[in-house]
Amino acid sequence: DGGITQSPKYLFRKEGQNVTLSCEQNLNHDAMYWYRQDPGQGLRLIYYSQIVNDFQKGDIAEGYSVSREKKESFPLTVTSAQKNPTAFYLCASSISRENLGYTFGSGTRLTVV
Amino acid sequence: QKEVEQDPGPLSVPEGAIVSLNCTYSNSAFQYFMWYRQYSRKGPELLMYTYSSGNKEDGRFTAQVDKSSKYISLFIRDSQPSDSATYLCAMSALRASGTSYGKLTFGQGTILTVHP
């Protein structure tokens, strides 16, 4: 079955540590996105990538980094510079950036302890 | 002021009720409107999308857009307990060619509970 896989589902991190969230898709989609979801805030765009080896900052990129070395993979690193990292992180993909039919993964719940 | 405002609820209705979910927006460049449904601890899934003002029906769901008032709604008829979820509106501006800029702006989401 085609889809997006995010792992792990739950992640705990000590304050001051970097952590990397995985996102893999087998839909052959060019564009991939990372969103953060907080209660009462909706989805906010962190980073997006239209093509391999290219990515752009979204609305709340500070404290995050990404890479896009393969079409299928778009990992997100939450660095110690991110002031409030506890959140639900969602990865999405679409056929191209112009196509807004996003497919979302099931998300990763990150908790900083 | 947020570009998209959505009442977070929570909204609780009895089974069989008609549900109205609403979003307002301030950016007149928004031309493409979508509704997503998100079950607890899952990613959002696309319910409906529309480009134009007016109504669009899909089974028990009707999406309504009023561009003059910058207001969109999602109506759910004969609501079921399985409709209990968070509903997110999303929208995007379009280029003159009709293609998007590739960025969706989401509302805050409305939590809906349909009780038997």
Report on the structure:
- The complex is a heterodimer of chains A (113) and B (116).
- Helix content of chain A is 0%, strand content 51%.
- With 113 residues, chain A is mainly beta.
- In chain A, strands 2, 4, 5, 6, 9, 10 and 11 form a seven-stranded mixed beta sheet that branches. A four-stranded antiparallel beta sheet of chain A has the order 1-3-8-7, with no helix packed on it.
- In chain A, a hairpin with an 8-residue loop joins strand 9 and strand 10.
- Chain A is globular, with a radius of gyration of 13 Å.
- By secondary structure, chain B is mainly β.
- Chain B is 0% helix and 54% strand.
- Chain B starts with a strand and ends with a strand.
- At the A-B interface, strand 5 of A face strand 5 and strand 9 of B.
Q: How would you summarize what this structure contains?
A:
Chain A has 113 residues and is an all-beta fold. Chain A has no helices and 11 strands. Chain B has no helices and 11 strands.
State which percent range the strand residues of chain A make up. Answer: over 45%
How many helices of chain A? The count is 0
Mean of all residue-level pLDDT scores of chain A: 92
Ends distance of chain A:
35 Å
Order of helices and strands of chain B: EEEEEEEEEEE
Given the helix and strand composition of chain A, which structural class is it? mainly beta
Helix content of chain A: under 10%
Q: Shape of chain A, please?
A: globular
The quaternary state of the protein chains shown equals: heterodimer
Which percent bin holds the helix content of chain B?
A: under 10%
Detail the poorly predicted runs of chain B: none
- SSE order of chain A in H/E notation? EEEEEEEEEEE
Percentage of residues in strands of chain B: over 45%
Structural class computed from helices and strand pairing of chain B:
mainly beta
Largest sheet of chain B: 6 strands, mixed
Note the main sheet of chain A.
7 strands, mixed
The tally of strands of chain A reads 11
